[in-house]
Structure formats: structure tokens, C-alpha cells
Amino acid sequence: MKHKRTVLPNGLRLITVPMPSFESATVMVMVGAGSRYETRKNNGISHFLEHMAFKGTAKRPTAQDIAAAIDGVGGEFNAFTDREFTGYYIKAPVAHLDLSMDVLSDMLQNSKLDPVEIEKEKGVIIQELNLYEDTPARNIYDVYPHLLYGDTPMGWDIGGRKEVIRAITRGDFVNYISSLYSSNNITVVIAGGIDTQKTEKRVQDYFGNMKSFDTISYKKVLENQNKPALTIKQKDTEQVHIAIGFRTIPLNGKDRHALEVLASILGGGMSSRLFSEVREKRGLAYYVRTSSDHYQDVGTLYSSAGLDKDKVEQGIEVIVAEYAKFGNGKSKLTKEELKKAKEFLKGHLILGLEDSRAVAAFYAQSEILEEKIETPNEIIDKIDKLSVEDIEEVAEKYIKQSTLNLAIIGKFDNRQRFEKLLKF
């Protein structure tokens, strides 16, 4: 899979990824703007703006007009917000590529931000926040970052706080856009059955007039953890949800791929160590999985699980014990187990890139966040080169009792029953 990177005169970056056998194409616009760029007074505005972008422009005055334009060609459109980026995309038949670019560029440059629509959408946003609160299996991924990063933008919920959402005005959106939505902070990726040369010209036509300006920076996280940490979010649930993990490295750290392989070994599939020990052998959980997450300045290796509330301590003990094997140099990792974990990772990467939307997101995130784009083949090559000794060395480096963190959603008053489990 080959790509071409071009920088427009206004600094906007364009990546084209021809996929010759495809009859469709995805246009994705990604902005280096997310919740970590927010303040206490506008927390949640990144996600809120994502909603408002679809609420009408001068050319297409209503949300219905925008939806009808895409529905009318059988396309699909959506957006997403993370801590470090916001993405907007349209996937449609390649014959309608111009329409996709026209709609997205119109939304980014000419959004009406109608105060009436803002007030209505506040209710939608608050109901979305309520949904997350009522879904502990989803909410644990907000509770765990707050434990790691505390009362900072990296620790706040991406969706924001309800009292802040209720107070946001049109002026807040205008100020936010003028602080981050600069052409040189935007990447457009177009993947699918495209002609690269023709596509480049059309992107210049649609996005070439966007303005470039200096953008605000994020506040770096200062990490100084020296003992295990625990947080319990009180909620009466039938199933206890936990996230347990360790501090690691930023996105561009040299151990990133080794950590991803380690995550695969621990909880990357139904034959992984944690799935086998927690679910299959003991029946303690319905789901258990491990991830290696990386941001521009920090990272974490962690496992999440939904545990039987009468056996939650046993579940935590088992998970900590599996991590301890790696942290204490007693993992007994074999070449066969490592090979399986590698193939799991590589297979998921390959399968995930069979869709033009996923391809666009892959290249957009790499361009926005990383020092250079690693192609899928380059990533696979780096994974293939990792040895048992590499994984064991990385595990011992980052799996330490002093940076162990446990987040729990459940109804528990006694913290000590869990604190005593956080050692190995």
C-alpha cells in the first residue's frame, strides 16, 4: 500500500492512498485538536464542535441538508474526538469524490454555529454523557485516565462536564476554532479508488483557501508516581469493571512496538494469557483485554475486565500475578507464544486496513501525531524483528510495582481490601 504526501501552500498536509480495486473513497479531515487542548472553562468543546459541524453551513443551512447530500449518493459520514485529535470523514462512491470534499471543506470553513442549534445540541451532548455514565464497561476508560493524569486536560473526560456544556456559547466555539483549526494543523487523507494527480488538484480547490496561523500548545504531563495508586468510582453494578496497568512511553518511544506485542501476549485475544487465566480457567469475567496506549508525551500498558462482583479480588490477584511474572523476569515466554502474539497483531492490522475509512484514519493519525509515517509494512517488519529477549527486557523495564494503577467502578467502601493486592 503506497501513499503520497503533499503540503499545500497554506501548510495543509494531504496524503493520498490509491487503492485501485476500490469503487469507493474516504475523505478524512483530521485536526490536531482534542480534549487535552481544552481548559476548565471549555472542557468538552472539542467533542461539542464535532457535533456542531454537521448542523448547517451557509450553503447547506440545516443538518438535514448536509445529511441529504451524502445520503443522496449512498455515502456515510461521521466524526470522532479523542484527546489529541478530531476527525471528520465521508465515505462514498469514488464518482462522488468532489461532493465529499465539498461538504467537508464547507463544514470546516463555513459552519453556521447557530445559537439555537447550539442550545438544542446541549441536550444531546448531556444525554450522551449520561449514556456513558450508565455504561460502566465504557466509563472505565474515562476513570482510568483520571487516575493516571489527575485533574488535568489529559485526565478529564473527552465529553466534558455537564455544567460546562450548558454554559458554552457561540463565541466559545469561534475562539476555539481560531486557536486550533489552522490549515497547518490539519491533515486531509483520501483513500480508495482515486487518481492521485487529479485528487491533489481538487483538494487545492476545496481546502487551499483555509488560513494558516499559530496554534495553541498542550500542557505536558508531569509523571512522578512512586507507589501504587487506586481509585474507586462508587456505582452499584451487577458487574465490577476494572482497569489495571502501568505507565510507559510516548507514541514515538523506541519500545512502542514491543509493548504492543506484550499487550497481545497478555490480553490480545481468546488464547492470550489473561483471557485463559481469568475467564477460561476461573470464570471470573466475561471480557478481559489488554491495550498499549500512547500519546505525544505519555503512555500506558493496561488491562480491563468486567468481573464477578463476588470474586473481584480474585480477579485482580490473577491479573496482577500475570503482570508480575513479566515484571519479575519469570514470564517463561516461549518463541511459539511470541510468534502467535505477533501474528495476532499483524493479522489485525492487515484486516483493519481492508476498509478505506480505516486506511484514512491510520495515515491521518500518523501524520498528525508522529514524527514520521510508518507504513503498515514497516510496522510489520519491526514486529517481526522482536525477540523473546526484547519483550522480556521491555516488560521488566515498565512493569513495576511503583507505577501500578488500579481503577474500579463498583460499590465498595473498604479501600484497603484492594490496596493490599497492589504488590508483587
Account of the 3D structure:
There is one protein chain. The strands form two sheets. Strands 1-2-6-3-5-4 form a six-stranded mixed beta sheet, sandwiched between helices. A five-stranded mixed beta sheet has the order 7-11-8-10-9, sandwiched between helices. Strand 4 and strand 5 form a beta hairpin. It folds into two domains: 204 residues, Metalloenzyme, LuxS/M16 peptidase-like (Cytochrome Bc1 Complex, Chain A, domain 1); 191 residues, 2-Layer Sandwich (Cytochrome Bc1 Complex, Chain A, domain 1). The chain is α+β, with helices and mostly antiparallel strands. The chain has 16 helices and eleven strands. The chain is globular. The two termini are 45 Å apart.
Task: Give keywords.
single chain; 424 residues; alpha+beta; Cytochrome Bc1 Complex, Chain A, domain 1; 2 domains; 5-stranded mixed sheet; 16 helices; 19% strand
Task: Compute the average pLDDT.
Answer: 97
Cα Rg:
23 Å
* Helix-strand sequence: EEEHHEEHHHHHEHEEHHEEHHHHHEH
CATH class of the largest domain: Alpha Beta
CATH superfamily of the largest domain: Metalloenzyme, LuxS/M16 peptidase-like
Question: What order do the helices and strands come in, and which of them pair?
Answer:
Blueprint: E1 4-7, E2 13-18, E3 24-31, H1 45-52, H2 63-71, E4 76-81, E5 86-93, H3 97-110, H4 115-133, H5 136-149, H6 162-167, H7 170-180, E6 186-192, H8 196-207, E7 229-234, E8 239-247, H9 256-267, H10 273-280, E9 285-294, E10 299-308, H11 312-327, H12 335-352, H13 356-369, H14 376-384, H15 388-398, E11 404-410, H16 416-419
Parallel strand pairs: 2-6, 7-11
Antiparallel strand pairs: 1-2, 3-5, 3-6, 4-5, 8-10, 8-11, 9-10
Helix pairs in contact: 3-8, 9-12, 9-15, 10-11, 12-14
